[in-house]
Amino acid sequence: MIRNNWAITEVQNLYNTSLLELIYRAATVHREYNDTAEVQVCTLLSIKTGGCPEDCAYCPQAARYHTNVDVHALLQKEQVVEYAAKAKAAGSTRFCMGAAWREVRDNKDFDRVLEMVTAVNEIGMEVCCTLGMLTDSQAKKLADAGLYAYNHNLDTSAEYYNEIITTRTYDDRLQTLDNVRKAGVTVCCGGIIGLGETHSDRIKMLHTLATLPEHPESVPINALVRIKGTPLENNPKVDIWDMVRMIATARILMPKTMVRLSAGRTDMSVAEQALCFMAGANSIFGGDKLLTTPNPSFEEDNLMFDLLGLKPREAFKNEKEMAEEWKA
Ligand code: SAM
Ligand code: DTB
Ligand code: SF4
């Protein structure tokens, strides 16, 4: 049963379940709702990099920190489509374009992004964008252009948010998510662990996600990538068990959601990633770059898939299954 009325104490009890029992329960839910042999491979591209006015303490692209990021203006549509087609040929079925913007502005750059969305949709990939805050009319325009998903992370709990970002509020985030929903675009919304938050903050974030009016179709769980020059550069490395615990709890709370093992895989062994899949993760980012930081190559991941008996998930699977049910 899909529930949106989880009590915070229920989330807390799940999260604090002894680890092997938690993994077992998450694996059971995962098996019931999803094909556990399938993992979706998604690819990211930073279409506009660096120079961002926001102060997100983790981010290599915030202009105010001195990081080594390669700043560039908005790419051309042709460059983006070429990159997407290569990712598709390598087995990726979802393509996410990221821009280091605080919010979308109604200008020529946005028009170009709309064209990119249409072009990538036409090659048969699930198109996702992450462009910062959106108004409802901008969300509508993206939907009309063929956008399948919009990524907008809550990152952490409402209480801890101000420690990480001061240039916008948690409510701003929730408002954009609502605009995305209303436009009929699927929601991709998750968080980062390793920001210095407590277990209670993680529990609260999972509770917020699992009690939204509809669960996000996609929940990325990122391990902080520590970036030199940012305020969080010296944070301790995320413990794999914390990652597994987050994924397992998310899986139990949101059985049908795609739970994405997102940033942080370069620091994880195949055995550690296997635990994440066991605990319910059913997607990764593939290709040797995330937005600005390294990620395992397609070749490395293919070897991992062969070893673990996993296969890449096709694009638009939910829609195909719904169409089949309609026919029956
Ligand atoms: N500027 C837009 C925004 O913030 O919504 C979109 C791009 S932003 C880079 C997308 C997401 O990447 C952030 O919400 C954050 O969750 C994630 N991210 C950024 N830097 C990260 C890091 N160093 N480690 C892990 N995740 C990170
Ligand atoms: C998400 O939750 N993680 C991705 C995607 N959504 C946009 C981004 C991870 C970025 C990691 C740091 C970087 O490469 O710049
Ligand atoms: Fe800008 Fe997004 Fe990075 Fe925050 S996470 S500094 S909004 S690019």
What does this structure look like?
With 328 residues, the chain is an alpha/beta fold. The protein has one domain (18-323): Aldolase class I (TIM Barrel, Alpha-Beta Barrel). Helix content is 42%, strand content 14%. It has helices at 8-15, 19-33, 77-89, 108-122, 136-145, 158-164, 170-182, 199-210, 240-253, 270-278, 298-308, 317-327, and strands spanning 38-48, 94-99, 126-130, 149-151, 186-188, 191-193, 218-223, 258-261, 283-285, 311-312. Strands 1, 2, 3, 4, 5, 6, 7, 8, 9 and 10 form a 10-stranded parallel β-sheet that branches. Helix 10 (270-278) links the parallel strand 8 (258-261) and strand 9 (283-285). Helix 2 packs across helix 9 (240-253). The longest helix has 15 residues, at 19-33. The model has no long low-confidence stretch (mean pLDDT 97). Iron/sulfur cluster binds at residues 52, 54, 56, 59, 61-62, 100, 102, 132.
